[in-house]
Amino acid sequence: xxxxxxxxxxxxxxxxxxxxxxxxxxxxxxxxxxxxxxxxxxxxxxxxxxxxxxxxxxxxxxxxxxxxxxxxxxxxxxxxxxxxxxxxxxxxxxxxxxxxxxxxxxxxxxxxxxxxxxxxxxxxxxxxxxxxxxxxxxxxxxxxxxxxxxxxxxxxxxxxxxxxxxxxxxxxxxxxxxxxxxxxxxxxxxxxxxxxxxxxxxxxxxxxxxxxxxxxxxxxxxxxxxxxxxxxxxxxxxxxxxxxxxxxxxxxxxxxxxxxxxxxxxxxxxxxxxxxxxxxxxxxxxxxxxxxxxxxxxxxxxxxxxxxxxxxxxxxxxxxxxxxxxxxxxxxxxxxxxxxxxxxxxxxxxxxxxxxxxxxxxxxxxxxxxxxxx
Length: 374
Description:
By secondary structure, the protein is of the alpha+beta class. The protein has helices spanning 2-33, 40-66, 71-86, 93-110, 116-134, 136-139, 143-159, 166-205, 215-232, 246-253, 255-274, 299-315, 343-359; strands spanning 236-243, 279-284, 289-295, 318-320, 323-325, 329-335, 365-367, 370-372. The strands form two sheets. Strands 2-3-1-6-7-8 form a six-stranded mixed sheet, sandwiched between helices. A two-stranded antiparallel sheet has the order 4-5.
């Protein structure tokens, strides 16, 4: 009875310890990364710091185990950290070899048996290292295989301990498997939460009808890009337009037809933007009003893009239930100026250019206050 009570306490302690380890692990990763930088250098930096942190914990576990303080707990925590270090699909071959070499060193230092048991222990370690490398991209999704790998590592290591009985090998291995299962549950919950968060962000940042960026995304992107353009010396341009006489389309053909036109127009313009060399995005900022943000164009390139869009829309025939609908656009075009401290001054200017196009007869472009022939 005392044995099982002790095992239960040690298992609970192990679960709490890995919960703390995961929390600190994530905190270090966020602090080291600092931004949403997804470059190889940033990834290597994060993995290096996390691996260093893991190594320090392993050394601590080694010392604690040698002092016979909760030996199964600390050894299993060290094995758990090695497990997570090998089960990393982002790791390259050199990184993996280094991590595997440290695990082998740890293993050899702590194997206390000789003969067949030692051979079996080392063989199971070799199997684990090989499987982790060749199936590292699948292990995250194949939870049953992950648990099997925990069993292989646990049995292999605890077989190498001279002071352990068969029941010790089983219970200590089960403890390690439970630690891995808790981690799987944690990451599944985290992934589910993250997916929900991304879905919510996507719903907020995407116009549900056209798939263009929403007004929220437009506002957020301008807050980011205007100061960045000023700071980095980049040019920044905006094209604002809306569909001429859109109310007539809704009144004559019906609102479903109007929605069909909005969808088709957004799809056509997005296709054009994808073919350009610029970083740019289309946003629906009103009923039939759209804006395009363009990073680092010249004034001539921005004007040419607006001309190309207007020509394409003029020639396009949008179809709804067999009825062909032709539309035109009124457009305003402007570049970010040095005196534009924030986006509001630029927005007021381009809004006036759009209404200038409307006032002058629609189906035209006003660039920096001047009507441009198309």
